[in-house]
Amino acid sequence: MREAARRELLEETGLEAVVGEVYDARSNFHSVEVHVVGIWFLGTVTGGRLAAADDAMDARFFPLDALPELAFETDRLVLGRLRDERLAHGEASRG
Length: 95
Known about the structure:
alpha+beta, two-stranded antiparallel ribbon
């Protein structure tokens, strides 16, 4: 699963990374007809160049305490959890 996440990150963002442990897993109820489970990993960018791929118009880094509007509730929940944990450790502005 980590290898698939690494390949997907590279394909969608141009970034190379070491994919670490599972950070969160949640049910995504984006559609009544289709049940999807999202899995979020922690990781470290090791190379590449950030660029939007075919699924995005733009790609940028944002501090966790200044995120733009996100399309999916589950992403907001997971990133909110990460932001709160980093705030508790004095690291919130780290993107």
